[in-house]
Structures are given as structure tokens and as C-alpha cells.
Amino acid sequence: MELNVEFIFDKADEDIKSFFRHEWLSANSQHFGRDISDEINQPLTVIVTDNSSSRQILGAAQCLIMGNTLRVSTLLVKEEYRKSQGIGSLILQKLENLAKEKKWHKIRLSTSEKHQNIKFYQKNGYTIEATLENDAFQATWYILSRFVEIV
């Protein structure tokens, strides 16, 4: 059998989406005994704004819900509000509160040594789970997580 390989950088067409829907269902059933499609890759965005009429965004996080784990893919604070206003910590605290409410057991994120924010995450209760040497951009990346106490 001769095979053809394609790379698609644009959005997937309906044939590709249909393939993934069908095969995910099959794989989920085989590996987990049920369809977990609704439990993975659910997007979540949290923003912090000021109270002015212009509603200026001061910080934001983009996340994915994967099973009972909340994965923070991006956490950004407007430059002039970094390091002293507590906006990043507020975002992490609100995510933890949501995780408790939704009974998600863990929050996970990654950062590189170049971001110089490991101490910030550790101060907020995160521990290093893994270190990836010379990964993307020839930097060391850290995967950090925090278990959420579910009551």
C-alpha cells in the first residue's frame, strides 16, 4: 500500500473533524471504557479587569480542562502590573477555587527558565514535577503542579 502524508496548518475540514470524532470515541472506549471526549480539551479563560468604565484587562490565563486536571497554558499580567499588584496570584487563587468547586484534583502548568518565574509559582504552592532540558528554544522547561484539596 502506498501512503501519502500531508501537513495541514489551517483549520481542519469536515472530513478530518469527522475522523477525529469517530476514532476518539473508539479509542476512548477501548482505553477508558467510556467516551471521555467531553472531559478533555475544554477551553477556559479567566481575566482580571479594573473597575473603570473602559474595563482594561490587567491579567489573563488560558487553560484546558483535561479530565480532572486543569492545565494552564498561558498566564499573563500586563507589564506595569507585574511583581507588585498580586494579579498573577489572584488568577491562580481563582483557578484553585474553581478547581475545588468542579472537583478537579490538580492544576498543572509549564514555564521556562527564561521566564524567571519559578519562585512565583512555588510561592503559590506549585512544585516542580518534571524538568525538560534543552527543550523548546534551547531552554530548560519546568512542569509544575499543585494538588487541589477536594472536600
Explain what this protein looks like in three dimensions:
This protein is an alpha+beta fold. It has a single domain (39-147), classed as 3-Layer(aba) Sandwich (Aminopeptidase), CATH 3.40.630.30. Helix content is 27%, strand content 31%. It is built from 3 helices and 6 strands; from the N terminus they run H-E-E-E-H-E-H-E-E. It has helices at residues 14-32, 87-102, 118-123; strands spanning 42-49, 57-66, 69-77, 106-112, 127-132, 141-147. Strands 1-2-3-4-6-5 form a 6-stranded mixed beta sheet. A hairpin with an 8-residue loop joins strand 5 and strand 6. 16% of the residues are buried. The model has no long low-confidence stretch (mean pLDDT 85).
Task: Give me some keywords for this one.
Aminopeptidase; single chain; 31% strand; 3 helices; 151 residues; alpha+beta; 27% helix
Structure at a glance:
The chain is of the alpha+beta class and 151 residues long.
Largest sheet: 6 strands, mixed
Strand fraction equals: 25-35%
Any idea what the CATH superfamily is called? Gcn5-related N-acetyltransferase (GNAT)
What is the count of distinct domains?
1
Question: SS-based structural class?
Answer: alpha+beta
CATH architecture heading: 3-Layer(aba) Sandwich
